[in-house]
Design a protein that fits this description.
The complex is a heterotrimer of chains A (257), B (286) and C (340). Chain A is α/β, with parallel strands linked by helices and 257 residues long. Chain A contains 8 helices and 12 strands. In chain B, 41% of the residues lie in helices and 15% in strands. In chain B, strands 7, 8, 9, 10 and 11 form a 5-stranded mixed sheet that branches. The chains are: A alpha/beta (257), B alpha/beta (286), C mainly alpha (340). Chains in contact: A-C, B-C.
Chain lengths: 257, 286, 340
C-alpha cells in the first residue's frame, strides 16, 4: 500500500482561455483525510476534477502509484470514487437504484446486481442513514436527504480513494456531524479521503489542509499546526481568525470595528 | 342657370362613361367594376389562365402563376409565384387592369388595397366552368362565351358517345393521390365520369376528395383504376391490392402529369379530359 | 416504512396491463375497417372478409404496435441521452431527413426513368429510411461527434430546420408532391403489410437488445457527465451507439408509418407516471406503452369516420396529450419537491 495516494506534478489546467491551475505539485497521503480550502475562484474544484481525471490537464497525475492516463478506465473507477458539487439527481429513480449505480465499476457489462453488490449498497445506505427510505423515489426527498443518498452512491463504490466536492451542501448540523463521523471511520479503515470544503471550522477537523489561492497551493500541512492556521488566515486576507476551543480549532470572522 | 347646365353636362358624360363600365359579381359576392374591357390580365390560377385563352384573349395575359403551363406560350410569361405565395410586388409592377385568382389564393385583399381590380373566381364543378367562362368573357368584353361552351358540350357528348354501350356502368376508382385520396362523385372528376356514363365506387356523400381507408377500395373491387403515374408506382404491392380485378387484369389507366393536369383542372379542357378517360377505357377494356 | 419492491411490483403490473390492453386492441383493430366495426369472428365464415382481415387489418394493427414500440423506445433513449424530459426521437433531424427523402423521391419519379426503377426496388419507405439516417449522420458531422451533448442537440435542431425548409421548397415547386406529402407528414398505417411489420419487429429487437446493454450508460448519465465518467463508463463510444439506435428506430418507424408525433415524447412520461424504474426496464415498458398508444389511435383513426380515415398523428397527440394534461392537473406528473 503506497504512502502517497494521489500525486500531481506540474499540473496545469485551463477553463476556456483562463489558466485555472498553475503548475501544481501536490502529494496527498494515503489513509488520511485531506481538505482543500481557499477563497472563491481559487481553483479548488478544478484541482479535484483534474486529480480525478475528469477534465483535460497538462502535467502528471499518479493514482496509487500508477499514472492516471495509463490506468484502464474501469480500474480507475474502482480505485477512485467521486462525488461532485450540485450533482444532478434524476427524480424518478428510487434511493436503492441510485445507490446501486455506484456498483457500476464492479459489475461486468451485462450482469445483474449480485449479493456482493446488495451488501455494499446496504452498508452505504446504512452509513448515511438513508436505509429506511430505500424504496422512495428521489423526487420525494428533501435537499439534505438527497445529498445523503448521493453520498451513499459514492460510498457504494468502496474505492480506496474518495474525492468529494462540497459534500455538505444542504446538510443540517446534526447530519454534518454524522458526515464527520463517517469520514473518520473511513479513514480508520484505510480509505484516503480528499474533500473540498468551504466550511472552514469543519475543514480544520481533517488530518491535513491544502490551502489554495489563485490556482496555486500556498500551504500544505497538518491542521493542528500554527503555520497552517496562519496561512489560512492570510489567504482570506485576515478576515478570519483561528481559535482553539476545547482541544479543537474553530474559525470566526474577524470583527471589522 | 349656368351651374345647372354644367351639372347636366357632367351627368351626361358620367352616364356615357358608365354605359361602357362592366359590373360583375365575383365568387365572393363582391361587386367588381371595370371601366373598360380588361387589356392587361394577370391570372393566378391555371384553370383561369386556360379560360382566358379559350376565349381567344391569350395575348392580353401579362403574367401568370408558376403552375399555369397551358398553352406552352404561358411559360414564357413572367411567373408570379403560386396560390400560396404570389409575388405582390411583381404583380403590381406589371400594372394589370384585372387580376384573376381563386378564393384560396392569398394576397387578394392586399392587391385590392393597392388599388388593383381583382376578380375572385373558383371553378369546382362543370356548371362552374360555364359560369366562369361567362364572367371572364364579360370582363374581357368578348361575346364568345356561349360559343365556347357549346363547343365544350358537344365535345363532351362526343366523348360519351365514343364509349360502346357495353362499357356503360363500368365501375371506376380514380385515385388523386397516394394517401389514398380518391375523387368521389361530387368532385369535378366525378362529374366527368358521370357524363361518360361510368360509375364511381366512391359516393359523393364522403366529400369531393375523401381520404380513404385502402380497405374500402379492396372491398369495392372496381373494374378499372385511374391514377397518375407518380402514384401508380408500388400500387400492386399495397397489402391486399394484388387480388383486385383491376390490378390482376391490368385494367389500370395510368396518366402522365400533363394528362393529369387536363383531368384535374376544372377548366375549358374538360372535354379533352373526358376523351382521355374514354380512350383509355376503350384500350383497357377491349 | 417503504418497501423497495413497491416500484418493481408496479412495473410488473404495468407490463401485464399493457399486454392485456395490447391484445384487446389487436382484436379491435382486426374488427374495425371501412365498414366500421364488425366482429372479427363473423368474418371467419366469409373468405373475402377473412382475406381483408388477414391481408389488411391485422398487419396494419400489428404494424401500429411495432411502430409505436419503436417510437416509445426511441423516446426513452432520447430523453435519457439528452437528460431532457422534453426530448423526442426526432431531435436529431431524422423527421426532416425522412420528409426530404420522400419529397425528393416523389419529385424524381416524374422526372427520370432511372429513378423510377431504382425507386421501385427501394420504395418510398427506403427513401424515408435513408433520409432519416443520412440526416442523423449530418447532425453527427456538424456536431463533430458526441462529446458535447449541447452541441449535438443544437446541430440536430439546425439540421431539422434546414432540411424541413428544403422539403417545403420542393413541395412548393411541385404541388403534386405537396399533396402526397400531406399524408406522410400526418402519419398513417394505410399501406403497412406483413413485410413492413417484419422489418419493424426485427429493427425493434436489435434496438431493444442494444439499448438494454447500454442502459447502465443511460442511468449513469442521469447523474451528470462528470459522475458518469468517474463510474468508468466510456461515454463517447457508448453515446455514439445510442445515437445509432435512435437513428435506426426512428428511421424504421417513420419509413413505414410517416411522421407520427408525440408517441416518442409521451410514452416514457406515461410509464413514469405509474412506475419509476431504471432504464433497463423503462425500455421495455416505454415500447409497450408506445405500441398501445399508437394502436389505440390507429383504431380510432380508422373507425371514427369509416370509410374515411383521420390522420393518426392528430389522434396520438389528442390521446397522449390529453392523458398527460390530466396527469398534470392531478399533480402526479410534476410532484413539487420539498425544500431542504
Amino acid at each position: 500500500m503506497p504512502t502517497i495516494a494521489l500525486q500531481a506534478r506540474h499540473l496545469c489546467a485551463r477553463l476556456g482561455n483562463a489558466k485555472v491551475l498553475q503548475d501544481i505539485d501536490l502529494d496527498l497521503p494515503a489513509g488520511r483525510w485531506t481538505c482543500i480550502v481557499g477563497p472563491n475562484g481559487a481553483g479548488k474544484s478544478t484541482l479535484l476534477k483534474a486529480l480525478a481525471g475528469l477534465l483535460p490537464y497538462t502535467g502528471q497525475v499518479t493514482l496509487m502509484g500508477s499514472a492516471l492516463e495509463r490506468l484502464p478506465v474501469r480500474q480507475r473507477a474502482r480505485t477512485l470514487a467521486w462525488l461532485g458539487q450540485n450533482e444532478s439527481c434524476p427524480d424518478d429513480l428510487t434511493v436503492w437504484d441510485l445507490a446501486m449505480l455506484g456498483r457500476l465499476p464492479h459489475q461486468p457489462w451485462l450482469a445483474v446486481p449480485d449479493a456482493a453488490d446488495d451488501l455494499a449498497v446496504e452498508q452505504a445506505l446504512r452509513a448515511t442513514q438513508a436505509w429506511d427510505w430505500r424504496g422512495r423515489t428521489l423526487g420525494q426527498l428533501s435537499g439534505g436527504e438527497r445529498q445523503r443518498v448521493l453520498l451513499a452512491r459514492a460510498l457504494a463504490v468502496q474505492a480506496p480513494v474518495l474525492l468529494m466536492d462540497e459534500p455538505l451542501a444542504n446538510l443540517d448540523p446534526p447530519h454534518q456531524a454524522d458526515w464527520l463521523e463517517l469520514v473518520r471511520r473511513l479513514v480508520v479503515n484505510g480509505t484516503t479521503v480528499v474533500s473540498v470544503l468551504h466550511e472552514l471550522t469543519l475543514a480544520l477537523h481533517a488530518d491535513e489542509l491544502v490551502v489554495m489561492d489563485q490556482g496555486r497551493i500556498t500551504h500544505q500541512g497538518r491542521c493542528d499546526v500554527h503555520a497552517t492556521h496562519q496561512s489560512l488566515e492570510a489567504v482570506f486576507d485576515h478576515r478570519v481568525e483561528v481559535h482553539e476551543l476545547h482541544g479543537r480549532w474553530v474559525t470566526l470572522p474577524r470583527r471589522q470595528i | 342657370m349656368r351651374r345647372l347646365k354644367i351639372w347636366w353636362v357632367w351627368a351626361l358624360v358620367c352616364s356615357v362613361g358608365a354605359a361602357h363600365a362592366i359590373t360583375l359579381i365575383d365568387d365572393r359576392g363582391t361587386r367588381v367594376t371595370l371601366a373598360a374591357p380588361a387589356q392587361r390580365i394577370v391570372s393566378l390560377l391555371p384553370s383561369l389562365t386556360e379560360t382566358v385563352c379559350a376565349l381567344g384573349a391569350c395575348d392580353r395575359l401579362v403574367g401568370v402563376d408558376r403552375y399555369s403551363n397551358f398553352p406552352e406560350s404561358m411559360r414564357r410569361l413572367p411567373q408570379l409565384g403560386g396560390g400560396l405565395d404570389p409575388n405582390i410586388e411583381s404583380i403590381v409592377a406589371l400594372k394589370p387592369d384585372l387580376v384573376l385568382l381563386a378564393g384560396s389564393t392569398r394576397g387578394g385583399d392586399r392587391l385590392r388595397a393597392l388599388g388593383l381590380t381583382v376578380l375572385t373566381l373558383e371553378p369546382n364543378t362543370h356548371a362552374d366552368v360555364r359560369r366562369v367562362l361567362e364572367q371572364v368573357a364579360l370582363a374581357l368584353g368578348v361575346a364568345d362565351a356561349q360559343r365556347v361552351w357549346r363547343g365544350i358540350e358537344a365535345d363532351l357528348q362526343a366523348a360519351a358517345g365514343s364509349l360502346p354501350a357495353r362499357l356503360a356502368a363500368t365501375r371506376v376508382y380514380f385515385e388523386v393521390n397516394r394517401a389514398p385520396y380518391a375523387a368521389s362523385e361530387s368532385s369535378f372528376i366525378g362529374e366527368t365520369l358521370a357524363r361518360l356514363g361510368l360509375r364511381n365506387v366512391v359516393p359523393g356523400s364522403l366529400g369531393p376528395f375523401p381520404l380513404l381507408n385502402p380497405e374500402y377500395v379492396v372491398r369495392a373491387d372496381p373494374d378499372v383504376i385511374m391514377v397518375g403515374d407518380v402514384n401508380f408506382v408500388g400500387m400492386a404491392d399495397r397489402p391486399g391490392w394484388r387480388s383486385l380485378r383491376a390490378i390482376a387484369g391490368q385494367r389500370v389507366c395510368v396518366f402522365t402529369p400533363s394528362q393529369s393536369d387536363v383531368l384535374v383542372r376544372p377548366g375549358p379542357r374538360m372535354a379533352q379530359g373526358a376523351h382521355l378517360m374514354a380512350d383509355c377505357l376503350r384500350k383497357v377494356l377491349p | 416504512m417503504t418497501d423497495v419492491g413497491r416500484q418493481s411490483r408496479r412495473a410488473a403490473r404495468l407490463v401485464g396491463a399493457l399486454l392485456a390492453l395490447g391484445a384487446l386492441l389487436v382484436l379491435l383493430g382486426a374488427s374495425v375497417g371501412s365498414t366500421g366495426f364488425e366482429r372479427v369472428w363473423q368474418a371467419w365464415r366469409d373468405p373475402v372478409a377473412w382475406q381483408i382481415v388477414w391481408d389488411i387489418r391485422l398487419p396494419r394493427t400489428l404494424g401500429a404496435w411495432s411502430a409505436g414500440a419503436l417510437l416509445g423506445l426511441a423516446g426513452a433513449v432520447a430523453q435519457g441521452l439528452f437528460r431532457n424530459p422534453l426530448a423526442d426521437p426526432y431531435l436529431l433531424g431524422s423527421a426532416s431527413g425522412a420528409s426530404l427523402g420522400v419529397a425528393l423521391a416523389l419529385v424524381s419519379l416524374g422526372v427520370s426513368p432511372f429513378a423510377e426503377t431504382w425507386l421501385l426496388r427501394v420504395g418510398l419507405t427506403g427513401a424515408a429510411f435513408g433520409g432519416a439516417v443520412l440526416a442523423v449522420l449530418l447532425t453527427l458531422l456538424l456536431a463533430r461527434g458526441v462529446q458535447q451533448t449541447l452541441r449535438l442537440l443544437l446541430a440536430g435542431v439546425i439540421v431539422g430546420v434546414v432540411l424541413g425548409a428544403l422539403t417545403a421548397l420542393v413541395m412548393l415547386f411541385d404541388p403534386e408532391v405537396m399533396q402526397s406529402m400531406q399524408a406522410f407528414m400526418l402519419g398513417s398505417t394505410s399501406f403497412v403489410g406483413w413485410t413492413a411489420w417484419w422489418l419493424m419487429v426485427a429493427t425493434w429487437v436489435v434496438c431493444a437488445a442494444l439499448t438494454w446493454m447500454l442502459s447502465p450508460v443511460l442511468d449513469g448519465l442521469s447523474l451528470g457527465e462528470a459522475t458518469a465518467q468517474s463510474l468508468g463508463l466510456p461515454l463517447v463510444p457508448l453515446r455514439l451507439a445510442l445515437v445509432v439506435v435512435l437513428a435506426l428506430a426512428t428511421g424504421a418507424a417513420v419509413a413505414q408509418t410517416g411522421l407520427i408525433a408525440f408517441v416518442g415524447l409521451a410514452a416514457p412520461h406515461l410509464v413514469r407516471s405509474v412506475a419509476k424504474t431504471t432504464h433497463r426496464r423503462l425500455i421495455a415498458l416505454s415500447s409497450l406503452m408506445g405500441g398501445v398508444l399508437l394502436m389505440a389511435a390507429d383504431v380510432l383513426a380508422r373507425g371514427l369516420l369509416a370509410p374515411q380515415e383521420l390522420p393518426v398523428g392528430a389522434l396520438t397527440a389528442v390521446l397522449g396529450g390529453g392523458y398527460l394534461l390530466w396527469l398534470m392537473h392531478r399533480g402526479d406528473a410534476m410532484a413539487p419537491s420539498r425544500g431542504s
